[in-house]
Request: fold
Amino acid sequence: MHGGVKFYRGSAAAARAYVEADHSRADDYYLAEGSGVATRYTAGSPVAAGEGERSVSAVQAGGTVDGDAYERWVAGYDVDTGRAKGLISKDEHALRFVEVVVNGSKTWSLAAALHPEIAAAYDAAQERAAVEVIGWLAEHSTTRVGPRGRQVQVPVEKLEAAGIRHYTSRAGDPHRHLHLQINAKVYADGKWRALHSVGTRDSIEAINGIGHAAVMCDPEFRSTLAAHGYTLDEAGEVEQLAPYAGRFSQRTKQIERNIDLYEAVWRTEHPDQEPGPVLRRSWDRRPPRQGDPDGRRRPGCCVERGAARPRVPPAEPASDEWPRRSLSNRRNDRHEDRSDPP
Reply:
């Protein structure tokens, strides 16, 4: 896994557009016209462990939800009962959920696009990785209790998540990934409260490491790759498909072009200066420029039930094979969440 944490602030009705903005029009929309579904997960308090054992949160799949139920979930209502989970903020900028993305190497998506058996195994591995991430967050997430100025951090006792499956990037390239959204409403100390989202953001390296290891070590995924004659290098890339990855990374190339432009403009305005690492990270997090080709169908790909099947082109030079940067974080990741009133 690679990427950052995204904070979604806004109306529940706009959440569909937020997610749909991250995949190609050629993709199988997860909530297209209200007919699609998302998978709901719940994680409870850690199970008591014996001496020398690690406590593990119980994660359960709560079934699929339709578009209306998803919107209620984002807004902070219980999907089963329709009741509000505590105080529902009317602020249009209120935090609704925190999102991370379960993804992997471009070569894994290429293998999945070529072989339905690998696609099924890869999807299942990503779902198991999502469960691992949710369990870890349930064990380590906190909320704040007490009146303003005298709040203390306490562990959460219950949190909910939604998983939304995508098959392509916004540019239409093969890119199987799972949007994992952690609801901003968590249960602790007898009531529903606000997730301490900054703690989630600060845990991104652990989250990415857990998710990557879960897929990388998944027995079903590894055995299915091997059955089709594929081998993985030390970094986990499919060796037989690595030379072709560059041609199916249009989104990465677009990001690199944008950053080059930001740097050129900055150097013009700041002669004889060098941009620092913080500034470079801010360029990496900027949203796409107006007019960028998001949502266009990539030439050379066709779609079968949401999956882009590549027509494999000739290999590119090694210098163009691998993505260098990621546009995963968004501008809102610098804001802290807001606590419930006393």
Remarks:
- Confidence is low (pLDDT under 50) at residues 289-342.
- The longest helix spans residues 116-140.
- Residues 6-334 form one domain.
